[in-house]
């Protein structure tokens, strides 16, 4: 497929179309205010991204409850007090011509007590001495996701994206390893998927007809079973509950090593599903124009740019200019990121990623 096809528009089931096939992946950056409010660093970052040619820009993970915090200086959307900064952020993205979404997040059993978080496990076996959430508490968290989506709509965002990956609460409830509940949110596959589906359905009822819903899914670690996740995804796609599926793969080219789908690409397990009007994209080591184009050949409707967008903010524009564009080689010096307009908070966060920032660089 020609790289030029990455710049064709893509309609979504609700709301306006994407102007091209580039979506910015949700990027945790630990640069918000300590209470979760949008900081000047958040705003500066969004101003850069808004002029970078993306069709849809997602924020980093935003807390739907104060007690669900995972990171220091994590963006928040759990209070009406966050609306002012979020509105400014949505306005900046709109001015640049892109669509916008807040990624909704609750850390579940991984909530950080040091930051005021309250670990909220699905199972009493997950954390020593910490009881599983009661059914009422699960429903409270469900309603907090829905309320946060309504805040995003009030702030002017085009939609939200649910963080259902990496063992956070929605992912945790999907896992038979982390979820041994005996109520309606545990047991068989349908029950373990119930929290995610009730959140999606609640957002659709609460928000307007043009509001967009995305879902980020990972399929590795945390006791997740590929066969089950494919079954759940098939139902969500068949019922057209979402506008787009974001497959969070560590490597978009990875091969399944065991089980029913051994030898196949992880991506193909999901691109082969009938998806009706739902769009599907993938993230994972998309560091060049050619790889982005290949993913459309492999069945994706769009691509999610993460690390490549951190290295070069205007990755889509670079690709448009040069169909052979390649991202800078990793690791990079901290000064390289600084010169590109990245805050010290964000740079320090990226130092925690293996081989991204050169050790001891200033």
Whole-number tally of structural domains: 1
* Highest CATH level, the class: Alpha Beta
CATH architecture call? Alpha-Beta Barrel
How many angstroms separate the termini? Answer: 41 Å
Radius of gyration: 19 Å
Helical content band: 25-40%
Number of helices: 13
Low-pLDDT residue spans: none
Strand-residue proportion: 5-15%
User: What composes the largest sheet?
Assistant: 8 strands, parallel, barrel
What strand line-up does the widest sheet have? 1-2-3-4-5-6-7-8
Silhouette: globular
Q: What's the CATH topology name?
A: TIM Barrel
Mean pLDDT: 96
Helix vs. strand class: alpha/beta
Q: Which superfamily, in CATH terms, is the homologous superfamily?
A: Aldolase class I
Order of helices and strands: EHEHEHEHHHEHEHEHEHHHH
- Oligomeric state: single chain
Q: Report the strand count.
A: 8
Explain how this protein is built.
InterPro entries: Aldolase_TIM, NADH_flavin_oxidoreductase, OxRdtase_FMN_N. This is NADH:flavin oxidoreductase. The chain is built from 13 helices and eight strands. It has 362 residues and is an alpha/beta fold. Strands 1-2-3-4-5-6-7-8 form an eight-stranded parallel barrel, surrounded by four helices. The chain has a single domain (3-328), classed as TIM Barrel, CATH 3.20.20.70.
